[in-house]
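Chapter review. Work through the record for ParB/RepB/Spo0J family partition protein before attempting the end-of-chapter questions.
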Amino acid sequence: MTSFHRKTGLGKGLSALLDDSDVVQSTKSEIPAQEIKAPAGQSIGEIEISAIEINPYQPRTEFDQVALNELADSIKVHGLIQPITVRKMDGGKFQLISGERRFRASQLAGLTQIPAYIRTADNQQMLEMALIENIQREDLNAIEVAYSFQRMLDECDIKQEQLGERVGKNRTTVSNYLRLLKLPASIQTSIRDQKISMGHARALVNVDDLEKQLFIHQEIIDKGLSVRKVEELVRNLHEIPVKKTQSKTPSFEVKKLQDDLSSKFASKVRLKIGQQGKGAIEIPFRSEDDLNRILELLDW
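Structure tokens for ParB/RepB/Spo0J family partition protein:
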């Protein structure tokens, strides 16, 4: 039987949340497959993939399909080296706490069972674990990190000065990420799509004039300006001639409202407003559990 070991270096905050004392000491009747002996008193189970539900608190909404296929190919050859982490639900079901990328790749690889740490966690702990696990991933884009930070402040009952300790980052870094959420939607999209860097974004945050902010943003994209050049432009804002555009894109107020709602519901909210002021609000959800989460936020 293949032996599994727990990967170290998850970070202080996540390590505390995933304390070994919270491991469910599962019996064979609780796990749909054979239990694996783990060192240091931990309990690891081989569980049926069909019994696992996606984490509704997962902050990541997009997964690189090419990277998933590559991981799936590796799993076909070597198996899954690092177990996922789940919590026990009613009816013999399990819910992902962390490791959705590994879970998805294992599905693509055709696995029917998957090794997992089985732990106890309430909804708030689920959210915090998922957020911290994702924040510590190097491939998370800056806007995803910023929204994760904001969700931790809004939903995990912690203050900004505590946030840095929980995620293993200093307070200045946390503040710089949160400030990105003040940028208009079009600039946030460019950050998310890696059209501009975190350095570019930090310079743009310091521009109070929206028209000049959008002008510099477009210059970065059109001319490939370096961060240093952008910082120079920001220092000399009075020299930038900006023509008012006749664009029919949503107003700044509408974009800001969309961003605020997206942050609140952790979903890409869209506002559709007609010429007479009538419209609709769209709040997409990915599963029944995700819908229930949104309804709870609406106090439904």
